[in-house]
Amino acid sequence: MKTFNTKYNGYETLKSYIDDNAIAKYDNILVQVFSGIGKKEFIEDLIKNLKLLIPKCKIIGATSSGEILDGNIFENECLIAITVFEKTLIKTISINEKLVDYQKGIEISRQLNFPDAKVIISFGDTNINGGDFLRGINSVNEQVTVAGGIAGKCNSNDETYIFTENGVVKNTVVAAVLENKNLYVNNKSSSNCIPIGKEHEITSVQENILKKIDHGSAKDFYSTYLGTRINEEISRMGAKFPLMIKRENRYISVHVLKCVGDEEIIMSSKIALGEKVRMGYGDYREILQGARDMYEKIKDCPGEAIFIYSCDSRKNLLKEMGAKEIVPVSSDILSVSGFYTFGEFNKVNNTNIFCSETMTILILSEDMDARIKIDNGIYDEYGYYTSEDSALYNLIKTAGEELNELNLKLEEKIKEKTEELEKQYFIDTLTGLENRNKLIKDLSVGKNNKLVIIDIKSFNDINDFYGNTIGDEVLKSFSELINLYCTQNNLKGYRINSDIFAIANNEGVKEEFIEKIKLLQHIINNKCLFYEEVKIFITVTMGVALEEESLFEKAEMALNYAKKNRNFFQEYKEELNIYEGIKENIIWTKRIRDAISEDRIVPFFQPIVNNSSGTIEKFEALIRMIDKKNGKIISPYFFLDIAKKSGLYKELTVIMLEKTFEVLNKTNYEISINLLFQDIINSEIRTLIIDKLEKANDPKKVVFEIVESEGIENFNEVTEFIREIKKYGSKIAIDDFGTGYSNFSYLMKLNVDYIKIDGSIIKNIHKDKSAELVTKTIVTFAKELGIETVAEFVSDEEIYNKIKELNIDYSQGYYFSEPKYNIE
Fold it and tell me: How many CA atoms lie within 13 A of 207 on its CB side?
């Protein structure tokens, strides 16, 4: 084989060259055209002339931004490389422009996928995504080498074109395949731009129009690094400082073509949204040294023809030094040709990839003994760089490598820490099972559609009786049992919290899942857990939800329903109306919040009558809600428990204290205010009470009623509170006495002023001897301690007469008055 390279200057000169070299006599001829003249008529005329002069030739060509011939760079010229083969077969095609670029690559491979195909030389128009195109080729044939690149242009007014012997096309690709099992194909490349600085992200881009990097404008990014906002200077320096994009584990450089306005920059190749980039640095000396190293490598390759497809930015960068990066190839019988592209095709690590800022070389030979001669003397011209130039480059390169190494180490540390934190976030430390966070995540991505939540019955009793150490061992043993059973039955176990576990599954029918879970429950309930010599038996309650939305929530509802109704197994079903109670809670929580924000929580006052005089001496402040729609009064029976469970109770206590003290400062009556144990231990409530007492006109009129059943047995906290408020002369009443813990012993220690006998006793006192006896005992004991008594729930005259008979000091109830908004 042999290659004849010449400039095209019209029909006559071309005819003379072809005739002089007897080219038309060969059967297998490939003509590559590199045209710096971007005129369609010119190219069509050239194709016509070639077909007349070399009827058997196959043609593939592209417009170029610079032409390479025998160590020289030209512009606005048209070069022709005519390669004649002895045994290599050639086929050329152009691909339908309507196909997407990836599909274009697939079609190229399919149509040119011959058994002995060694290389595809392909040229694409400027709107082709080279990466997608080559990925299409690779998907069909990874063995073939692809060379060539994207058409360029010298003048902004010219068009880019690609063509074969069948005509000129746009917006697509053309290709030539060389088929010969004895054709030797080698390709090399030299890039030599290095990444420097930290990594950034492309956050706005359209094709090759770069808009934003790290959410800031592309021009601001370059201005920061290059120290200028002048468009012409950024465009000029952009070739030396390209963007380095990491693709397929190597950096690809994309350089600046032109700045547009105050924000956008047109780049030499398309960039994808989200790609990671670093600023690059292209050094003359390193580029030339890289080329020298590349030429040294090709000396050992079989070679009869060399074609160079190099990036336009390298031409611009090296223009002031001529063509020094290509001159080392020199021979009397071998000439070199090629062109400058807007992106190059090259095979690296057995994969065809799209490059930029790269010089690629394709070496062909039908003779395995043929070698390329390198003119080593030319290397002397590479030595004009000063030691300062070399030091500067090495400084930048070394600093960049050090920074990159530090970044890699930091990334590794971050990865390790992330994995550690993720493990902590998703794994229960005591049992090793995945936790509630992991279950919620798995459910959110649809991993499971069947779920059971398991509650160990009365587990707190185990902790209280045996201690937390043994309790933890029980949980570990229980987890091991769960994990083993799940492994054997293709289920997934989780620990939700404390003594709550879950098992999930996404396979099989629901009946099979229920059967497996019920078998597990039977195993657990009949299993004895050992810790040293301690034998512990446990039982579990299960709530199941199957193929439901809000799977976790509904499994919890089923579990709560089972516990409430003393069942051990409950499947969630709509007809159980489990969800209705939840909805009611949500509705009431919103009503309470709205009432608080709209000032519709108010105190109502119920009188307390002196049984000796029959006159009203005191009042009790009772909380009420005013209905927004109709103004009706809502009893705390409907909202107080929900307020406690929803975390709104403290706000209600604050409102009652504020509003009751306002009334206290305007009346001469004694008023009692209800407090729960949780109010007494709340520092904010305690502080508010003391503040109100300090500012009150007469704090002696204040009575605090402590509910007897709500933690009053916590003696120390209660006595401390009583001691504190007694300093102001305020009084203490024990409310609902006779229920709950009903302990006379602590009355002897608490400095209380009143005992309010619970209404459940008083309402039956006139007809129940037991109630009468309990009341007599309370009254007698209270009198001995000097404590006055109040009967609650006095609803009629018969009860009132009985109360007076039993020598109770005060009465309160609807017999006298219902609670009212104002004190009269």
Answer: 6
Beta bridge partners of 619: 607, 671
pLDDT for 763-815, tens place per residue? 889 888 888 998 998 999 889 889 999 999 999 999 999 999 999 999 999 99
User: In the numeric block, which tokens belong to residue 482?
Assistant: 């769960």
Pick from 727, 685, 681, 735: nearest CA to 705: 735
Same domain, 277 and 291: no
| Structural tokens at position 261 | 């306005």
Q: Could you give the dihedral angle defined by the CA atoms of residues 174, 69, 240 and 61, in that order, rounded to the nearest 10 degrees?
A: -10
- Is residue 16 domain-shared with residue 120, that is, in the same domain? yes
Separation between Cα atoms, residue 777 and residue 218, nearest integer Å: 89
Q: Which amino acid is at 695?
A: K
- The predicted model gives 675-689 an average pLDDT of 90
Nearest to 221 by CA among 188, 249, 247, 198: 198
* Same domain, yes or no: 155 and 211: no
Neighbour-count burial for 212-226, b at 16+ CB within 10 Å, e otherwise: bbeeebbbebbbeeb
Domain range for 407 is: 386-424
10 Å CB burial of residue 437 (0-12, 13-18, 19+) is: middle
CB 479 within 8 A of CB 495: yes
Contacts of 201 (CB under 8 A, 6+ apart): 213, 214, 274, 275, 276, 277
- Predicted confidence band of residue 384 (pLDDT cuts 50, 70, 90): very low
For strands 209-213 and 216-217, give the pairing: antiparallel
Domain-ending residue, one of 576, 611, 629: 576
Q: Are residues 246 and 350 in the same domain?
A: no
Sort strands 601-610 and 810-811 into parallel, antiparallel or unpaired: antiparallel
Extract the tokens encoding 456. 């160990």
Strands of the sheet containing 57-63, edge to edge, are 2-7, 78-85, 28-35, 57-63, 162-164, 167-169
DSSP result, 502-536: EEEE-SS-HHHHHHHHHHHHHHHHTPEEEETTEEE
Q: Which two tokens stand for residue 8?
A: 């095209």
